Amino acid sequence: MKKFEERTIASETLYNGKIIELRVDDVELPDGKRAKRELIKHPGAVAIIAITDQNELVLVEQFRKALERSIIEIPAGKIEPGEDPEKTAIRELEEETGYRANEFTYVQSFATSPGFADEIIHLYLARSLEKVENPAAGDEDEFINLQECTIEETEEMMKDGRIFDAKTAFAVLFLKELLKK
Amino acid sequence: MKKFEERTIASETLYNGKIIELRVDDVELPDGKRAKRELIKHPGAVAIIAITDQNELVLVEQFRKALERSIIEIPAGKIEPGEDPEKTAIRELEEETGYRANEFTYVQSFATSPGFADEIIHLYLARSLEKVENPAAGDEDEFINLQECTIEETEEMMKDGRIFDAKTAFAVLFLKELLKK
Q: Does the keyword Transport apply (chains A, B) (predicted)?
């Protein structure tokens, strides 16, 4: 299987921000030609498919500036430097939803936008949930609305666009599959 | 349902590239405090869940500079300015795979990274495929390996990381669901 590697000729960091970094690379293509690649570096994130004992999916509504609207997503958050993704996931679930899970398992990792970004999301499944008495507080610039929805409700929300992001769309199909078993 | 809107106080474009644009916004949060939002503007993309008459998923292997490796994905491509997403999808399917579909239907749209990017992927389902005699050529900086895989093979590829992006992970679950019916 040929790997079509693109060799880096030059690399320039144009922005180094709080969350993302912008880099433009000059690359040599497999045929010897040159091309530019605009690349975003991101610390990576986790997301949690949290299911209540009533088989409802735990969701958070949040304003997303990039989209200029609120959308409804599974709980998620960025990985802090050096933090183990599973710890991030346990922390984010508590901060965003007030839940702790007695069953916590790794599901899958994927890149969200491999065409320009290195962001990878690690997905976890949380079951046997318990409300924490005094949950850890989340980021102070996060404003979140919590809700718990049946699989039928989440499918409706996918259709009308309230659910509108890749990880949550994956979670809805994953849950549907899981509940069939 | 509160929308938690973040009002833009100031907006600065720091990079305007061939594919992406980087903007940093100062926003006012619902509690009156201020925050910075690092935002990537992207033209949007399409992706195609193309299924052969043998119920195999059409996949392309491609080197992704952002990840510094090759991954196996469903066919996809950026929307050209003013182009109708369905036309983009028909064009990309032909360019990347040499297939034209007699059945072409819209499935779903989702944002890939709503935390920092406005990229939206429009997903289409292509069935009743036919090989085109002289397919249109793709981008000259794209090097692609075509393959067709059963649902069991794609699940194996998700497990071992050859399939490693959100849209293709969604497509695998979608196909599994579809073939059950």
A: no
